[in-house]
Design brief:
The chain is an alpha+beta fold. The protein has 5 helices and 4 strands; from the N terminus they run E-H-H-E-E-H-H-E-H. The chain is about 35% helix and about 20% strand.
Length: about 150
Amino acid sequence: MNPADICVSSILDKRVTINDFSGFDNVNISYQTLKHIIENNIATWKSALSNVKGIYLIVDMLTGKQYVGSAYGEDCIWQRWSEYAKNGHGGNIELKELLNINGSDYKNNFKYSILEVCNMNLGSEYIIGRETYWKEVLVTRKFGMNNN
């Protein structure tokens, strides 16, 4: 490739660095960071997130609205968050509608954190029950983005 053919699309205000996974209670990452972690298969993150089921929180940083979700599939949180990294909505109706209204770049306003980690041996019913608990605690059905 000829260097003259390269086009700079953006210059970030600060250098992007992704540290090794530093614990579930320290996860508070932007969509761009999540996408980088997933696309680059960062080993410490993949190992940690692939080995626990759990409840996570997505926050719209423009409105403050929250979405509570759960991960209980084969690759646990890693698998679920990989879906979000692809398109920002991960198939969730509420998030998909939000992106349809505001455009796909709106996903850059999302931040991801983990509310609770659960043992791999726990069944999906237990995880869904914990997800329901967090929806009630955070009142995300009334004031957030959970419709179920």
